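INSTRUCTION: Work out how this chain folds

Fields: amino acid sequence; protein backbone structure tokens

Chain under study, with its fold:
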Amino acid sequence: MAADAAYANVSLLLHGDGANNSTTFTDNSSAVHTATRYGTAAISTTQSKWGGASIRTPGGSCVLFADTNICDFVAGDFTIEFWVRADGVTTQAFLNNYATSSATSTFVIQCNGSGVIGAYAYTGSSSISCVSAASTLVSATWQHIAFVRSGSNFYLFVDGVQKATTTSAATLNTGAAKTRVGAESDTGASGATAYFDDVRITKGVARYTASFTPPTEAFASLQVYITGNVKNDANANVARTVRAYRRDTGVLSGSTVSDGTTGNFSIITDYAGEHTVIALDDDAGTAYNVLAYDRVVAQ
């Protein structure tokens, strides 16, 4: 599994893993929010996208998180995404941070009875809408849905394909009291009869701004670093450009400059395997050997 360089920005991460019929819904983000449930929502091993289990909401049920900081996006970027396998094409709410009205809510992602998926963000007296132009929900099929803000642009993606976009520079409401999976309200209104897997909310990061290939593995529950120290030919700590390349593909994982006093560096990467790390000669007019470290594993 690849690591997630933006893991520190993840405010909610639900893998839906666990024993069949379990009512423990583990938040694998670093915030570790505590879940409750309404109705008969539970972990199910009947269906899963990853990991052998998922969250089952059998209509009129939901999983709730009573933490306002999950969705306090305000004017910042965000990515809300999840896998869903709906039993049928009906009116149903998938994921939301909705209170009693649009004046106090943050977002809703839902589907109407024709299979049209819509995402709505709320600014107080009005809403920002991203609605697919045609039916996009497919019954009994795992689908990836993502709602993204990047600057003043809002995007809705279904299975990696951009289905809608709109523009607004408005500041969103701060996070409402409850974030829910599988229904619009605490009492299960507009409940989804569906399975959910890998529900992830990322604050401050727009992960997708154009059509993309949907995730091919479960979301990572960690971020990893490549760390080290750079010295010059006099064995003194120096500032040097340091780059880390994936050893399997040669793709650049990250770059930084080592600290001029301590010589230390740290590169966040989204790949937990072996790297080749190179410290460059940044001094103009001189010729030093490039320092190379092979088979460095991010930790």
Notes: The chain has a mean pLDDT of 90.
